[in-house]
Design brief:
This protein is an alpha/beta fold. It has 9 helices and 7 strands, in the order E-H-E-H-E-H-E-H-E-H-H-E-H-H-H-E. It has one domain: NAD(P)-binding Rossmann-like Domain (Rossmann fold, 3-Layer(aba) Sandwich). The site of NADPH dihydro-nicotinamide-adenine-dinucleotide phosphate has 32 residues, from helix 1, strand 2, helix 4 and helix 7.
């Protein structure tokens, strides 16, 4: 199934990335789970993949570091010999109002959520060329489209990721590599579990479908975008947000 394709999922150990890793493995892809610090969570995800009869491995790496990602690429190619799919999912938030946000909060979020995708794409896309096709999906956010109070860093990073997606789609199309962005609204993960109850209630009141999304729902969309059925879709931003932005 899926010709033994190999996928790299950054931040694949938990939350949305974990759901994506599980979907890709269930559909027959071999999955490289990239995580930064929580090895136990990465191992848990790998065990789940194996219990489903899938194949994967875990790779500790910081997406902001060139040498870390070079090492991942080397190890993945040694192990499986090819790379077909890249999911740029690793992301963090460091929310503060503009006048309280210091340079470190800004840099950390921009480095992880935007520069990380640049580093991974730059180092990994070239290995898709010899396969005659490739798929890259960037996990952006509706916040990159509409902005949010307390998230000037995150809004800028995700808006940047959307621009990056379109530029890469144009550049890489000559090698039949598609590049798309998925922009989730509020999804139930550890990233959103830290929000105040009052804030969650306020967000819920603005979502037409009346609930937060599930990581598995985002993963199904990603699964479609990496499939052969999505071969004529590139440079698009697809919102998955219960109708929050329309
Ligand atoms: P989580 O906080 O649940 O998971 C984050 C993942 O990213 C973890 O696997 C973490 O690894 C990894 N990670 C963080 N920093 C780095 C780094 N520097 N290098 C490598 N890996 C790193 O996040 P979510 O699942 O909620 O979010 C996933 C993506 O979806 C993010 O890009 C986020 O912005 C986006 N998104 C999320 C929404 C939501 O409502 N949850 C809404 C819209 C977009 P470790 O645990 O080892 O640190």
């Amino acid at each position: 199934m899926n010709d033994g394709q190999v996928a790299i999922v950054t931040g694949g150990s938990r939350g949305i990335g974990k759901a994506i890793s599980l979907e890709l493995a269930s559909s027959g892809r071999r999955v490289a789970i990239v995580y930064k610090s929580n090895r136990d969570r990465a191992l848990e995800t790998l065990k789940e993949i194996e219990s489903l009869g899938g194949e994967g491995d875990i790779f500790q790496a910081d997406v902001t570091k060139w040498t870390d990602i070079e090492e991942v690429v080397k190890r993945v190619l040694t192990k499986w010999g090819r790379i077909d799919i890249l999911i740029n999912n690793a992301g963090i938030t460091k929310d503060k109002l503009l006048f309280k946000m210091d340079e470190e909060d800004w840099d950390e979020v921009l480095d992880t959520d935007l520069k990380g995708a640049f580093i991974c794409t730059r180092l990994i896309a070239r290995h898709m060329i010899k396969n005659g096709e490739g798929r890259i999906v960037n996990i952006a956010s509706v916040i990159g489209e509409i902005g949010n109070i307390g998230q000037s860093n995150y809004s800028a990073a995700k808006a940047g990721l959307i621009g990056f997606t379109k530029a890469c789609a144009k550049e890489l199309s000559r090698w039949n590599i598609t590049v798309n962005a998925v922009a989730p609204g509020y999804i139930d993960t550890e990233m959103t579990s830290i929000l105040d109850e009052s804030i969650k209630k306020e967000y819920l009141s603005r979502i037409p479908l009346g609930r937060f999304g599930k990581a598995e729902e985002v993963a199904k969309l990603v699964l479609f975008l990496v499939s052969k059925d999505a071969s004529y879709i590139t440079g698009q931003v697809i919102n998955i947000d219960g109708g929050l932005v329309m």
